[in-house]
Amino acid sequence: MKLIIAIVQNEDSGRLIGELMNDGYSVTKLATTGGFLRAGNTTLLLGVDEEKIEGAMKIIEKICKSRKQIATSPSPMTGGTGVYIPYPIEVTVGGATVFVLNVEDFKKM
Ligand code: 2BA
């Protein structure tokens, strides 16, 4: 068995969970926050048998779209004042960031 950890955008999470569950996957949803944007995102945990990993990946790839977001970053240009001025930068937030881990043991009690 493997554990898929998928970090996705909140906008895609409802549809993604729906499709995964329709295909028989068990899903746990966690409300998470990205360290860079400090904005909410969604982390899904899926415990899956090896042969079902590809199916899950296909669904994640189909649903999760990359989008551009504006973030503020402190400017290195202090102008001699020693003050950092925030300025907007555009980042492309990926469709999904996915980790696949080996599961040593799996029990339901
Ligand atoms: P955030 O950390 O809020 O990052 C949002 C987006 O900002 C990233 O999209 C990336 O395009 C950009 N970004 C992140 N760190 C950056 C930096 N140091 N400089 C410039 N741009 C930067 P994604 O790469 O698609 O990541 C989306 C979310 O997935 C991340 O939200 C984070 O919550 C998670 N994530 C991505 N890679 C990860 C990793 N290696 N480990 C744990 N979580 C990760």
UniProtKB/TrEMBL annotation:
Protein name: Cyclic-di-AMP receptor
PANTHER family, A to Z: CYCLIC DI-AMP RECEPTOR A
Keywords, sorted A to Z: Receptor
SUPFAM superfamilies for the chain: GlnB-like
Pfam entry (one): CdAMP_rec
Superkingdom of origin: Bacteria
Gene3D superfamilies the UniProt entry points to: 3.30.70.120
